[in-house]
């Protein structure tokens, strides 16, 4: 394991995978992480257990670059967990690569987390006051510390006790010398699915990871559920009183891969329907529909189907630049956006072009792309977002923590239209987004966490409330 405490340069929704009872567990985890690369591009790590020892490798960078070669010799064992990181709490740095690990009295415990905890700062302070020494600056580590300090005997009791103390969004996979553990937060903000491969079990953020390794989808882990996978099979426990689930809508809009199935719905088909609905709500008098690749493609296709206007690839995407929104710095995001998209003049020149993207967050992508399309000779440029205006920050695993950086939070529609320099601008409505998923929004208890669009947060925001009190939020001297 590499521990470089001097390397804290800011280089930079995470993806998680766990495999139990398979002779090539690390290889399967690496393949699963590869399928989940779109959820985090900053760093990746795998921890295995071979019956005697834990093995761990953690790298900055992508899965393909980090986990090639003879993986089962480097990371032997029939049980493994892995993580792709997109940082939301704790800077990108070697110390902040997951899985994180602790030696407990009778076993090691490795943990990987997708999501973000909304009381991690408060808990961290409490734990430090009690003598805890933190090895990272991530929110995730409070769970490791709480499990390590629990007075309970059984591992599942320790884990559930820790989960009852934390708040926010999470899907976890954990590994001990006997068990693979999976858990989702009380409302199921972040996703986690269970699959089967031969005699073995798989946990993964999305079904596309199961498909990649040839595992059969069994079911989603439910909101508030803890699963313990051991030689005895899968046991299910409830860490919280039952309540309705409220998964994050942004999984449908942007995060999940289009070939994944979420709550029994194809993400691709939901995005296509978002395009149909957008065309009904916000039609445009144009010659051609052009998607903003990649995540805007299915909605643009849907818009074209609904409106009858031809769909054309007017923007070509470089396959060597990843997702830009999930890069950790504004400079990095802007640099990547410039390299990522190129205009296809043969489609754009002299045309009235409608650009369709899945979302407009900070406006970085739209601003650049509109100018690029104009420079390529488009006569008019119109823009549609297949999600509603994003006016509120997210604290559950999407890195948009302040209102100040959200374009729609600070500008009227007309101001945005001017800023983006488009002839017309339109967004999908909240009800339209729900309709695309096939649900009518329940005003008193929304079926999805739609806080980015509506301000309805499904949990308390302990750290954020304290911050509003004017306190300086420095997570650690290491950060
Ligand atoms: O308004 P912004 O702050 O620019 O963020 C929104 C953009 O970021 C995402 O694309 P990204 O490049 O991350 O991934 P993609 O290739 O999957 O579309 C999203 O699809 C929008 O295009
Ligand atoms: N995007 C995520 O899921 C991040 C997980 C965790 N909060 C971290 O920063 O590493
Ligand atoms: Mg995009």
UniProtKB/TrEMBL annotation:
Q: What class of enzyme is it?
A: transferase
Catalytic residues, chain numbering = 14 (nucleophile)
Known EC number: 2.4.2.14
**Residues where Mg(2+) binds:** 295, 357-358
Question: By its UniProt entry, which InterPro entries does this protein fall under?
Answer: GATase_2_dom, Ntn_hydrolases_N, PRTase-like, PRTase_dom, PurF, PurF_N
| Family named by the database record | In the C-terminal section; belongs to the purine/pyrimidine phosphoribosyltransferase family.
The protein's name is Amidophosphoribosyltransferase
- Organism, by scientific name, is Henriciella marina
Gene assigned in the entry: purF
